[in-house]
């Protein structure tokens, strides 16, 4: 599977990209400007965050996970990473709708609830880290796994 550039069109089936490109011009006379993304992310009243350390490894996906009760936000902190995902209505009986996206350092995505995905792959031969935000308790009661019929290998 080839890796796609992350853009509004290619990622729309999976979620949204959170980027400064989607906001208005910054007013230079202000010390700061604030832009809310609340309308773009389906989050619960209580959310948690964590730091994910993604190990460099073979780019082979044999299973995927999803969270039915929350969007998941992933921010690439210190390196480019590849995210493998499938739309939330995919039954994963074949890999026809599975895609791989390049998330560059500093970019953020907000996956729709129930979007299938796997732990990102670092692009470089070292670990990379991501900030992850989802509904509080997701790791305890909303981890849903499915083994793929055929593994996905990312080029």
SSE inventory with pairings:
Blueprint: E1 3-5, H1 8-11, E2 15-18, E3 47-54, E4 60-66, E5 72-76, E6 81-86, E7 99-103, E8 108-111, E9 116-117, E10 121-122, E11 128-135, H2 138-141, E12 144-153
Parallel strand pairs: 1-7
Antiparallel strand pairs: 2-8, 3-11, 4-12, 5-8, 5-11, 6-7, 6-9, 6-10
Description of the molecule:
- With 155 residues, the chain is mostly beta strands.
- The protein is built from two helices and twelve strands; from the N terminus they run βαββββββββββαβ.
- It is globular and about 55 Å long.
Task: Offer a concise description of the structure.
By secondary structure, the protein is mainly β. The chain contains two helices and twelve strands.
Give the low-confidence spans.
none
Mean pLDDT: 90
Major sheet size, sense and barrel closure: 5 strands, mixed
Number of strands: 12
Quote the distance from N terminus to C terminus: 6 Å
Q: Could you say how many structural domains there are in total?
A: 1
Radius of gyration: 16 Å
Estimate the helix proportion, in percent. under 10%
Q: What would you give as the CATH superfamily?
A: Ureidoglycolate hydrolase
Tell me the quaternary state.
single chain
CATH fold title:
Jelly Rolls
Instruction: Please write the string of helix (H) and strand (E) elements.
Output: EHEEEEEEEEEEHE
The number of helical segments is: 2
Indicate the overall shape: globular
């Amino acid at each position: 599977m080839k890796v796609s550039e992350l853009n509004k069109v290619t990622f729309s089936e999976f979620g949204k990209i959170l980027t400064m490109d989607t906001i208005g011009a910054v007013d230079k006379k202000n010390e700061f400007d604030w832009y809310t993304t609340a309308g773009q992310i389906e989050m619960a009243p209580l959310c948690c965050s964590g730091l994910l350390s993604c190990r460099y490894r073979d780019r082979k996906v044999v299973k995927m996970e999803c969270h039915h009760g929350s969007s998941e936000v992933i921010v690439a902190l210190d390196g480019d990473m590849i995210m493998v995902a499938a739309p939330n209505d995919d039954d994963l009986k074949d890999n026809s709708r599975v895609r791989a996206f390049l998330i560059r350092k500093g970019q953020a995505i907000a996956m729709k609830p129930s979007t299938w995905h796997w732990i990102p792959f670092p692009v470089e031969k070292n670990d990379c880290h991501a900030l992850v935000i989802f509904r509080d308790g997701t790791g305890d009661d909303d981890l849903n796994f499915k083994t793929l019929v055929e593994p996905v290998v990312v080029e």
